[in-house]
Write a structure and sequence with these properties.
Number of strands: 10
Largest sheet: 4 strands, mixed
Keywords: Activator, DNA damage, DNA repair, Methyltransferase, Transferase
Catalytic activity: a 4-O-methyl-thymidine in DNA + L-cysteinyl-[protein] = a thymidine in DNA + S-methyl-L-cysteinyl-[protein]; a 6-O-methyl-2'-deoxyguanosine in DNA + L-cysteinyl-[protein] = S-methyl-L-cysteinyl-[protein] + a 2'-deoxyguanosine in DNA
Radius of gyration: 22 Å
Domain HTH araC/xylS-type: 104-180
Strand order of the largest sheet: 3-1-2-4
Distance between the termini: 46 Å
Mean pLDDT: 81
Low-confidence stretches: 145-159, 172-179
Order of helices and strands: HEEEHEHHHHHEEEHEHHEHHEH
Helix content: 40-55%
Strand content: 5-15%
Oligomer: single chain
Organism: Paenibacillus cineris
Protein name: 6-O-methylguanine DNA methyltransferase
């Protein structure tokens, strides 16, 4: 994880075009939609318009495309002609799903492409192409979502374009090996906007708002950690959480019972266990949680574990605020966080009246 201190260090390296930072970070420029190497000759963006990534794959998943000036994925001094040719092919048709015959048409051996990409970028060519495709799909979802924000108060209605983009994100062909795992992903419309639910037949793995920043990286990380193919579909846990979300937003449910599959370190799981114990209508501070865990100085680690939660609402990270009383951060946005806390306070008030 890139800290605030590293971001300032990387930004200064970008301004100074320090070659020693080549391969250490990439910078995504929000105003242009491209990502660059530290030594890019282009005019330098303002700090607030920069997002920093440790790998090219992370930048691609965040919907940034390679800069045409510094060529972060195909710079002549760093990569072979095979890699350059494939990167250019992906940029020509970024939504294309690559098959063996496509390599033949370019007169490139698929195994050579896989090996060279893995050595240079830490990911195979297919992973690169998928990351680029996922980034584009999430960008489409976010662009459309911004247009209909005003409709959230009266109920979210998703368009077919969003669902098409969603299918492109999740549409991964299952691996051929007999022991491969398949996770299903479903789009769930809620009062506060659409959410993505990912589960197998036994438990829920992920529940997030589709416009959460970094969601594409969360999905890819989940795919890699579980060694799973994630494809559109519905399972019993997904049906369960959809029903519970409806009841939650209607104000008739406050505790979720859908089975969960938690992926995290022992410390992260201990923090999430504390989150579940926060009653609806109440909040805790990061330092308060750290104290409850018997590690009063670990409030920064608690905050990081809170942010790593992949099960929004179910594990109520929105109930954690700053010690000052300020809302603090929230992956789904502070407007949603404020609404959720008020909604739960109203639920608690109604329960007391009855």
């Amino acid at each position: 994880m890139i800290t605030a201190e590293h971001k300032m260090e990387y930004y200064q390296a970008l301004l100074d075009k320090k070659s020693e930072y080549e391969g250490i970070f990439y910078v995504g420029v929000k105003t242009t939609g491209v990502f660059c190497r530290p030594t890019c000759p282009a005019r330098k963006p303002k700090y607030e318009n920069c997002e920093f990534y440790e790998t090219a794959q992370e930048a691609l998943l965040a919907s940034f495309r390679p800069c045409q000036r510094c060529r972060p994925l195909s710079h002549p001094n760093h990569v072979s002609p095979v890699v350059q040719k494939l990167v250019e092919a992906v940029e020509t048709y970024p939504e294309k799903r690559w098959k063996e015959q496509d390599f033949d048409e370019l007169d490139i051996d698929a195994s050579t492409a896989r090996r060279q990409f893995k050595k240079r970028f830490g990911m195979t060519f297919v992973e690169y192409a998928r990351a680029r495709r996922m980034g584009l799909a999430f960008k489409q979802i976010r662009s459309g979502h911004a247009v209909i924000d005003a409709q959230l108060s009266s109920g979210y209605e998703s368009g077919s374009g969003f669902r098409d983009a969603f299918s492109r994100i999740m549409g991964a062909a299952p691996a051929k090996s007999a022991d491969s795992r398949i996770l299903r992903a479903a789009w769930i419309d809620t009062r506060l906007g659409p959410m993505v639910a990912i589960a197998d037949e036994e438990a829920l793995y992920l529940l997030e708002f589709v416009d959460r920043r970094g969601l594409e990286r969360e999905v890819e990380r989940l795919r890699q950690r579980t060694k799973s193919a994630i494809i559109p579909g519905v399972t019993a846990p997904i049906r369960s959480i959809e029903q519970e979300l409806t009841a939650y937003f209607d104000g008739s449910l406050s505790v979720f019972t859908t089975p969960l599959h938690l992926i995290g370190s022992p410390f992260q799981k201990s923090v999430w266990a504390q989150l579940v114990q926060i009653p609806p209508g109440e909040t805790r501070s990061y330092s308060g949680l750290a104290g409850a865990l018997g590690k009063p100085k670990a409030f920064r680690a608690v905050a990081q574990a809170n942010g790593a939660n992949q099960l929004a609402l179910v594990i109520p990270c929105h109930r954690v605020i700053n010690a000052s009383g300020d809302l603090g951060g929230y992956g789904g946005g502070l407007t949603r966080k404020s609404w959720l806390l008020q909604h739960e306070k109203q639920f608690l008030s109604n329960q007391r009246q009855h």
